[in-house]
What does this fold into?
Amino acid sequence: MRIAILGGTGNIGRGFALRWGQKHDIIIGSRNAEKAEAFAGEYKEILEDRGYEAHITGTDNKTATENAEIVVIAIRYNRLQSLIDLITPVIDEQIFISVVVPMEKNLCYISPNAKPRTVPISSDQFNTDYFCFTMPEAGSAAQEIEKMLPAGTELVSAFHTVPAKKLANLELELNYDIGVCGSSEYSKKLVFELVEDISDMRPLDTGPLEASAMLESLTPLIINISARNNMKDVSIKFI
It folds into this structure.
């Protein structure tokens, strides 16, 4: 499959490229095409040194989307609107995967009926050094993306609990469970296959796209647990 990774020069993008580049054609997307090309060359060299015939290229986000069958959105939540506006003219039956998490440091949980806003917390009353899921008005980042994309575009939400550093470390087998949310069984099946392409990962159906908030909120939880308990790159396994 031809997989575009928008934000492919970031930490999580690196891991996806190195893991999927062993079996699929990867297009690294970035706001800067030259930067994407440089990172693509680096990823390709790493895989070729390990004996893989890697097909990894780099370009701007719009071109990457245009030439892909599957598009992974791996950017910051606050950059979503500008990215979707950019790529909308070239969207044509691609399947999208969102790994986006709306979270901030030192913010309180935002209810579905409230617009996101900073809530100051007195540091002399609470230890505020933590990350918190900030629920968008639509309910989740995935649902926000769904509203931005052209009607009928298939979108799946997944990979929110994958530690980026371990994903990029090809020496590791990743015995993790990956929740997958989506309203199309066909798209979910494709994402299940991509999960299974990565070492020992196991995909689990966690419901329709509307259930994505539960997955997205796990990311700040995992980060907080890691930071407060001297654990590195924590993930999830259901036993």
Remarks:
- The beta strands are 2-6, 25-30, 55-60, 70-73, 95-98, 103-105, 131-133, 154-158, 177-182, 202-205.
- The chain has one domain: 2-101+138-215.
